């Protein structure tokens, strides 16, 4: 199939989850033999990845993602030139340019939904929409869903109830299990001291990612005399300054700043434990559902790291407690520290947990697995449309 993937507010190459996601899906579909055209912004590196994917540099006007829809004419013109069988659009409230191009060209329309389409309780956006009387934002979001032949998402709970269940495909996102593996090598921006256990946090520094909880856990471990456990914090974001401040005076916490995604396999392979201390209470939309498909967890698993993450129903479906990692009670102030301490002294059993995590992600959560499921869904939808 000829596929056009519209994600113009995402930078490729890049370090954010969205950038990694778009590249993973595009390359995975191309590996299945599809002709894949991807519309994205060019990342700071200034050069698109090499390979079979055909990249098209189209960003939102002035780099403002809320103005994405103003690229409708340009996206449609490119669709008419490419002649895609399928158009995939990465959903955004103020998007819809791919949906319109699919309607104009007759291509199968796939909407990729990574964030809630419906409003969470108390949403300021919902109040604004109601103040505008005709609720334009809700109507536009629901139109995008209604116009899609297929919606791919990690959680159907974030979609309008009006979407027919047969048009929804729930698929987890994934990891590049070929690049992320326990033997990955390369320079890493943190020291490895013999006899020390390294717990790594990698990702965006936002309140709901909970990086500050790892700092607090290290503080508690130091108070108990566990100087052998250190934390490496990889990434950037608006919460970074607060996390750094919390880490002031805490020995054994290293901040690397943002690291390019091509260096991440070596960074994770050099660690011992992958920590994903999500703070559900810090992000109101998560009241709808833990709708993320957490890339950091999949990449930890691919690197052969046992995972430490809160014990919530959604994450239980990804990490089996005591088999691929440890799920802790986030309501217990000592929960995260105790989970890390348990793994720090586990020795052979930690290696077994990491091996099980690696086996699970290869079997269920690789981008190749995701793309095969997406491919089957698109082929089925084309046959019935």
Strand-helix topology:
Elements: E1 2-12, H1 17-31, E2 35-42, E3 54-57, H2 72-82, E4 86-90, H3 97-105, E5 108-112, H4 124-131, H5 136-147, E6 150-153, E7 168-170, E8 197-202, H6 211-223, E9 229-234, H7 240-247, E10 253-257, H8 264-269, E11 273-275, H9 295-302, E12 307-310, H10 313-316, E13 325-328, H11 335-344, H12 348-364, H13 367-384
Parallel strand pairs: 1-2, 1-4, 2-3, 4-5, 5-6, 6-7, 8-9, 8-11, 9-10, 11-12, 12-13
Helix pairs in contact: 1-13, 2-3, 6-7, 6-11, 9-12
Written account of the structure:
With 385 residues, this protein is an alpha/beta fold. It folds into two domains: 2-174 and 366-384, Glycogen Phosphorylase B (Rossmann fold, 3-Layer(aba) Sandwich), CATH 3.40.50; 197-364, Glycogen Phosphorylase B (Rossmann fold), CATH 3.40.50. It has 13 helices and 13 strands. It has helices at residues 17-31, 72-82, 97-105, 124-131, 136-147, 211-223, 240-247, 264-269, 295-302, 313-316, 335-344, 348-364, 367-384, and strands at 2-12, 35-42, 54-57, 86-90, 108-112, 150-153, 168-170, 197-202, 229-234, 253-257, 273-275, 307-310, 325-328. The strands form two sheets. The chain has a seven-stranded parallel sheet with strand order 3-2-1-4-5-6-7, sandwiched between helices.
